[in-house]
Amino acid sequence: MQTIQPLENGKYYHIYNRGINSSILFKENGNYEYFLKLYDVHIEPIAETYAWCLMKNHFHFLIRIKDADEIKTEKKIQPSQSFSNLFNAYTKAFNKKYNRHGALFERPFRRKSIESENYFQNGIVYIHNNPVHHNYCEHPLDYPWSSYSTCLTNQPTKLKRKEVIEIFDDIENFKYIHEIKSNGLPIETFLGI
After folding, report:
1. What's the pLDDT band for 52 if we cut at 50, 70, 90?
2. Would 159 be classed as within a structural domain?
3. For the chain, how many structural domains are there in total?
4. pTM of the model
């Protein structure tokens, strides 16, 4: 049996998962919106978000689990339990709406610890270019269910936009690196997977 490492406070992670048997997770715009609303409820209190992308049958998040003293709750929260609560709440609503039953997400959800700035930067590009890789669009700006466009605006956001842009030095380099890494190279080469 595979040993699953618990999420640790203060560490950065690439969190990803898909529908059980690659089933559809998001059938309509309201599904995406509701998942993000639940994400704000369950994950925003315990993590900072640097990049995200929701696809029809899977999703990606690049996050940092907050230090214990940054988490403002009355009770101690286990980060993995917060993700479980998110998935369970979404599954319950999805099952009710579409008259289905049973698990919706694969278990356990996947996580990769991010140990270097290079992996962090490449992880952001990988997440934003996921819709391009899966032929949903030709450019990440064309896909509405990712944090790419949020990084280019000045509108209020909980996304750690300033920190993301600083990793790329500036907004022009952010756009440039996304552009060159979405053209021609297999996306797996960015993460060494």
Report:
1. very high
2. yes
3. 1
4. 0.90
Q: Does 193 fall in a domain?
A: no
* C-alpha pair distances (Å), 117 with each of 43, 160, 162, 168: 23, 15, 15, 10
CATH number for the domain that contains residue 161: 3.30.70.1290
Phi and psi at residue 171, to the nearest 5°:
-65, -35
Is 122:190 a contact under the CB 8 Å cutoff? yes
Whether 6 is in a domain gets the answer no
Whether 107 maps to a domain, the answer reads yes
Token pair 């956001």 is at which residue?
157
pLDDT tens readout for residues 9-28: 999 999 999 999 989 999 99
Structure tokens at 176: 């440039």
Q: Which of 18, 56, 41, 14 is nearest to 143 (CA)?
A: 56
